[in-house]
TrEMBL record:
PANTHER family: SGC REGION PROTEIN SGCQ-RELATED, ZGC:162297. Belongs to the BtpA family. It comes from Budvicia aquatica. This is SgcQ protein. It comes from the Bacteria. Pfam families: BtpA. InterPro entries: BtpA, RibuloseP-bd_barrel.
Length: 268
């Protein structure tokens, strides 16, 4: 039995993304609408996700594009305000993801009592954001310095919009990541948010590290959830839950309900 049962309440867990709209400091932030509009939209999406029956939610600054690999203070502060105001409404376990800054994610997790974070913890990449480096040793030491040792770590080992600078196959990456870092889960992704995770790649990772939780991280939908959850221990889902399955739209509760009905039948 994996930690998913203890922390989220079920195996084959569905972690739904609650995508926060652009925040102060982001190019897309609408100062005229202000933070209250952002909070109201997050409340609407959270309500639709929870009423649809998801197992957990993860709050991310998804509309902070283009992303930073070291975020500004105003981003994490704004996220803390939003989650703090929503906290009395949250009925399921929740995590956070400050894109793409694992130190800020740990800080936010401690501020809002989040159970898990998802980040790019390891590797060096050529990416849309330029040359992207990480420092997992320092990051994990920061986790323990601030008392976040119980926060579960979801390591994204197929970064979106990026490739490893060295020639490494996915099995080698999975094996060394688990050996060196003891992650709580590995996340396997497509190229961008909403892009389907390749099932063959997902199976290679799970076969390589069978004792580690492996999550399908992007593109899981009603049409492929049977196949994906036959391999993975769970999934992180966002775009499929939105109106018409379009990334920029808000969450459609009916789509969430249909998906979760299917997942419950898979579990049985």
């Amino acid at each position: 039995m994996s930690w998913l049962k203890d922390v989220i309440g079920t195996e084959k867990a569905v972690i739904a993304m609650c995508h926060l709209r652009a925040l102060p400091g982001d190019p897309g932030f609408d100062a005229a609408k202000g933070m209250n509009w952002v909070i109201d939209r997050a409340y609407d999406d959270l309500t639709a996700l929870q009423n649809g029956g998801v197992d957990a939610v993860m709050f991310s600054n998804e509309f902070s594009m283009p992303y930073l690999t070291k975020v500004k203070a105003e981003t994490a502060v704004a996220m803390a305000r939003i989650i703090g105001q929503l906290m009395t409404e949250i009925r399921v376990p929740y995590g956070v993801n400050v894109l793409w800054d694992p130190v800020a994610s740990f800080d936010l997790a401690m501020a809002v009592d989040a159970k898990f974070i998802r980040e790019i913890f390891t590797g060096a990449y050529a990416s849309d954001f330029g040359v992207w480096n990480t420092n997992v040793g320092e990051t994990i030491r920061h986790q323990h310095r601030i008392g976040a040792g119980k926060v579960k770590t979801l390591f994204n080992i197929v970064p979106e919009a990026a490739v490893y600078m060295g020639e490494r196959d996915i099995c080698s990456i999975a094996k060394s990541t688990v050996f060196n870092n003891r992650p709580d889960a590995l996340c396997v992704s497509g190229l961008t948010a909403g892009s389907r995770t390749d099932s063959a790649t997902l199976k290679l990772v799970k076969d390589t590290v069978p004792n580690t939780v492996v999550l399908a991280n992007t593109g899981v939908c009603l049409e492929n959830v049977d196949e994906q959850l036959a391999i993975a221990d769970g999934c992180v889902t966002a775009t499929h839950f939105k109106k018409d399955g379009v990334f920029d739209n808000f969450v459609d509760g009916d789509r969430v309900s249909r998906f979760m009905d299917r997942v419950r039948s898979i579990r049985q």
